[in-house]
Amino acid sequence: MAIVRWEPFRDLSELNRLFAPTAGAQRRWLPAMDLAESADEFVLTADLPGLSDEDVKIEVEDRVLTISGERTSERTEGKGGYHRVERAFGSFRRTLTLPEGVDAEAITASFDRGVLELRIPKPEQRKPRRIEISTGGPKTLETSAA
């Protein structure tokens, strides 16, 4: 038979863990983003719950697309009632390098129910130019003697 040491506060440590801040509450908030590609465009979708379109800033500079904003905390200091806080808040900034040739003026954005959608038209591919080769060798100019 094994001897087990009695620890009176062992059960309290489990209770304490329930009320301790979680790793999710301490980390910086970074919204989830998806990037899909179709034949004509890239579609970027970002989850921004609790934000409005006025809270989000979208910029393009030197082929770098930047989405930034801030989600503020809804709880106020001094007001009790919270037993656990897991929703992260704070400022965020996501960047994406665009392919060469993307027209920044053609990018469109929509915001609906906390979801931001950017449509980024693909740049037109440069088509190779075919140069015809003439046959028969170099032509000489005939001059007439006067």
Automatic annotation (TrEMBL):
Residues 24-136 form the SHSP domain. InterPro entries: A-crystallin/Hsp20_dom, HSP20-like_chaperone, Small_HSP. It comes from the Bacteria. It holds the Pfam family HSP20. It comes from Solirubrobacter phytolaccae. Belongs to the small heat shock protein (HSP20) family. This is Hsp20/alpha crystallin family protein. Residues 122-132 have a biased composition (Basic and acidic residues). Residues 122-146 are annotated as: Disordered.
